[in-house]
Amino acid sequence: MKVSDTVVGAGFVAAGALIFSGTLGYPTLEAGHPGPSLFPRLLAGLMAVFGGFLSVQGIRARDETDEVAWLQLHRNPGFINAMVILAGVLAYILLVERVGFLLIGALIIFVIMWRLQVRLLTAAVVAIAFNTLVYFLFAKILRVPLSLGLLWF
Question: pLDDT, tens digit, for every residue of 9-20?
């Protein structure tokens, strides 16, 4: 049994079930029109199904060794990249109201690109350009209120 695939797959099944259960209280629309729960339920179902496939694949797979390399996990670049992404999400949640969408978004994108060994100038230009594009799309075109933070006191 391949422990990592089995555990990750089970995590996706659980996350899909949790998301689906969270949408049960969403309002329904008349005449059978799709409501606000359609897209989250669709994604939750896909997460659960493919997580189940991954778990079954992990159960069927045989590892060459029986030892789990948990002690070497901190040296795995993929694990470190995943932790940088997780730290970026947490930083965004905690700081977006105070710092602002434009600054924290560009900083997070820059740090992720730096971690992935993109040249600093390229990372800075892409982070600023992409984050500005996302800001104008959501704030100006779709009229989603985004925090301005430090830029507009």
Answer: 898 999 999 999
